[in-house]
Design goal:
Helix content is 40%, strand content 21%. It starts with 5 loop residues before the first strand and ends in an 8-residue tail after the last helix. The protein has 14 helices and 13 strands. By secondary structure, the protein is α+β, with helices and mostly antiparallel strands. This is Replication protein, repA.
Length: 336
Amino acid sequence: MKKKLVAMRPEKLIEARYNLTSKENDIIDMILNTIKDDGKHVYKIDIEKYKNLFVSGSTNVYRDIKKATKDLFTKHNKFIIKDKTAGKEFYFTWFSMLNYNDKDGSIYFEIGETLKAALLEMKKRIYYELQYTLNFRSIYSKRIYYMLKSFSDTGWRIDNIDELQYKLNCPPSYKNYAVFKNKVLVQAQKEINGSDISFDFTPIKTGKKVTGIKFLIKDSNTVKVKNEVAVTGATQSENDEATKVQKIFKNHKITNKEAESILKESGGDLKVIKNCYEYALNKNVKNIVGYIRTLVKDFKEPKANVAVDNFNNYEQRKYDFAKIERGLLGWEDDED
């Protein structure tokens, strides 16, 4: 059996803002399939290895990749990662060197030490088969696929529509929801629903205005790339922390994998997880894991009174979780 080609894409890169064409994104996929924790910064990509993955055929693959290589380096060699916790934006360049060699049909590239280290060290990541992403025609389909793939274990995710359009680098005309729906969401649905995941979406409204999108994700389970512990390289201490998360969920039975996903979303903050879980107990939540993952992600602590709790001997704050929930969809401004 021919070995499947798999790429790794970290969460911060999935959620980053960048402006790439579909073919330029294909090069990034090949690069993410190539880099390893090997101390190197200069690599070679043999296009021969990937050309048969393109459903449309390999006749123009070399020509298209050559053009995309030049455009990627000269026009789109920058991207932004937003750190909501720090309230900062970090600017990166993809490559310090990128070159297509006509003689052997290969790409040679050099990736900076800081970016490579960041990509390899990011704990939350997804693994996906290139046969899917290389054949999505729309760049929005590729981007949304990565976003949904990272939440396929929970079955749903919610995005503030302004933030989603910012990440996707949509033009101003897409602020009109009807345009955004037809040009981005419907097109992505047509392409992605033929891959290893499928999705549906529902607009979330504040009054008459669409302010968010809820994605419902179905994983076909036809692709089992690697064991979760193996791909994340979980240490014994990380497994111990996951066990603590399972104990917090006293009224629900969750798997170790689900506990690890919640732990990663919270940045390892057991205090936040416990408080979010206790809040959720008072609500009618059908998908407790997905709900908590959404609530703890990019958690910002509001001003609150301090109380003492005997869980792990830390000081517990009384949070306004209803306000935090609304903040996830951008329904109100964050407090300073």
